[in-house]
């Protein structure tokens, strides 16, 4: 009897210790979550305090505008998170969590940028009334969800490289001789070089990489379209206008001016005659052309008929179209070039917080998409060099583009936003999903699935158009030409 009571007491004590351990563990977890919540709150308070003070924590009142401070905060956050993305691999969990948390903080300010819209309501006595209610501003309401979708697609693309085992990057602990052998010969010498098998990548891996590249290219074009439209709607600062030359000839120089104002203009031939061998020269040409466009637009809006030097409004409009076409081609062929003087000036003096968020968020996504595409092309180039060691130096995928002739028409993008925000991310397909077969299946099944994957790859190209950008922009001169049946130049980019 006594022994039975002692055994029962032991069981009772063990249960007490068990429940006590559970309670203490839950208490520790609760305290940890509370501390993390407090830390997040303190960090968020610090960030928004800097934004409210315009990045001037001294209290001297020398801070920048709220719009520029928010734009800088988003840019700096992206640089600290994505700046270490040197190769094709998933983002570390801590960096991914930090990005999602802090970008949500910064974007949350757009929830309070609203406009009045009419809404129908029924009163208690059944009378229909139309009242004005607040809703997030239209451009933010449409474009913020689209940017979030593009953001998720890019991160999912990086996550897809988790299980691949056909290419790798040189370890930091490698021998100096091996590092010297695989050192990059291009202008990005600090980036690690991908290594592929001696016989090159498999057909499945090669097709899957091309599929990923096409998917990221869709994201790049969509981000470019949103960024371009927002920049086009930003007010042009007075100091930029005051710095413009007197006429387009002075801005472009005699040689470029004559090439643009010829009777029969071919943009592809024009660019073939320009020196585009360096980033600086491309940016210089872009600045000159943008300045000439602004000069022609101001002269067209300020005068009727002909100016003192005999150029009619119709010709100025034609020259403007040609210049915008050149800008469009430059951006398509060289998506990684820095911002122009006009773009920097607009961002610096912009006072619209909503536009600042859209511009900076789309710009960093554009930059990340271009970076991911470059990393994918590094692997494809390494594969090409392995298979064709003698002719590989001629391969340059970033500059591959079909010849362009005549004036370009920016495609209509009304349906693309719906596709982009409603479909599953096309780059969420992993390598095993792309293969669609296991090692136990036969060769015939593998070939059939590769054909199916090829058709899927072709279907993803339907999203190459940028999404619809909802704006309050007034009808421009170029849009009026389009309504008359002419071709529209790509005003959405510049």
From TrEMBL:
Q: Basic and acidic residues bias located where?
A: 445-459
A single GO molecular-function term is: guanyl-nucleotide exchange factor activity
Which parts of the sequence belong to the PRONE domain? 31-393
Alphabetized, the UniProt keywords read: Guanine-nucleotide releasing factor
InterPro entries linked: PRONE_dom (IPR005512), RopGEF (IPR038937)
Keyword Transport part of the UniProt annotation: no
Q: Where is this region: Disordered?
A: 445-464
Asked if the Swiss-Prot or TrEMBL record annotates the protein with the keyword Transcription regulation, the reply is: no
- Which PANTHER family does the record cross-reference, listed alphabetically? ROP GUANINE NUCLEOTIDE EXCHANGE FACTOR 1, ROP GUANINE NUCLEOTIDE EXCHANGE FACTOR 12
Could you identify this protein by its name?
PRONE domain-containing protein
Species whose genome carries this gene: Ilex paraguariensis
């Amino acid at each position: 009897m006594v022994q039975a009571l002692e055994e029962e007491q032991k069981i009772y004590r063990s249960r007490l210790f068990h429940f006590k351990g559970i309670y203490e563990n839950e208490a520790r977890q609760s305290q940890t979550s509370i501390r993390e919540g407090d830390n997040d709150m303190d960090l968020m308070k610090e960030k928004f305090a800097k934004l409210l003070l315009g990045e001037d924590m001294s209290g001297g009142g020398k801070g920048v505008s709220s719009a520029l401070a928010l734009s800088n905060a988003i840019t700096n956050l992206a640089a600290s998170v994505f700046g270490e993305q040197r190769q094709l691999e998933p983002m570390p969990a801590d960096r991914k969590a930090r990005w999602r948390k802090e970008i949500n903080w910064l974007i949350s300010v757009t929830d309070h940028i609203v406009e009045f819209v009419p809404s129908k309501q029924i009163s208690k006595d059944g009378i229909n009334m139309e009242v004005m209610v607040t809703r997030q501003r239209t451009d933010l309401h449409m474009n913020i969800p689209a940017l979030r979708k593009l953001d998720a697609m890019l991160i999912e693309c990086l996550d897809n490289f988790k299980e691949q085992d056909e290419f790798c990057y040189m370890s930091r602990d490698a021998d100096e001789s091996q590092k010297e052998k695989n050192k990059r010969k291009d202008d990005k010498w600090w980036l690690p070089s991908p290594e592929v098998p001696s016989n090159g990548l498999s057909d499945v891996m090669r097709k899957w990489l091309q599929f990923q590249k096409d998917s990221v290219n869709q994201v790049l074009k969509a981000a470019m379209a949103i960024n371009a439209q927002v920049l086009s709607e930003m007010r042009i600062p007075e100091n930029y206008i005051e710095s413009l030359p007197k006429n387009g000839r002075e801005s472009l120089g005699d040689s470029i001016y004559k090439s643009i104002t010829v009777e029969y203009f071919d943009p592809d031939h024009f660019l073939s005659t320009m020196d585009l061998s360096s980033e600086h020269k491309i940016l210089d040409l872009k600045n000159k052309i943008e300045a000439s466009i602004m000069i022609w637009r101001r002269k067209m809006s300020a005068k009727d008929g002909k100016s003192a030097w005999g150029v009619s409004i119709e010709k100025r409009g034609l020259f403007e179209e040609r210049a915008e076409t050149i800008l469009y081609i430059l951006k398509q062929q060289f998506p990684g070039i820095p911002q122009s003087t006009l773009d920097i000036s607009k961002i610096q003096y912009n006072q619209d917080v909503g536009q600042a968020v859209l511009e900076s968020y789309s710009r960093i996504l554009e930059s990340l998409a271009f970076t991911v595409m470059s990393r994918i092309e590094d692997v494809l180039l390494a594969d090409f060099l392995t298979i064709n060691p003698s002719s590989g130096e001629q391969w340059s995928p970033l500059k591959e583009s079909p010849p362009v002739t005549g004036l370009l028409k920016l495609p209509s993008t009304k349906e693309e936003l719906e596709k982009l925000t409603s479909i599953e991310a096309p780059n969420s397909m992993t390598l095993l999903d792309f293969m669609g077969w296991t090692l136990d299946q036969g060769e015939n099944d593998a070939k059939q699935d590769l054909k199916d994957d090829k058709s899927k790859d072709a279907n993803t190209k339907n999203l190459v158009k940028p999404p619809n950008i909802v704006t309050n922009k007034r009808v421009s001169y170029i849009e009026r030409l389009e309504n008359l049946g002419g071709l529209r130049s790509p005003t959405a980019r510049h």
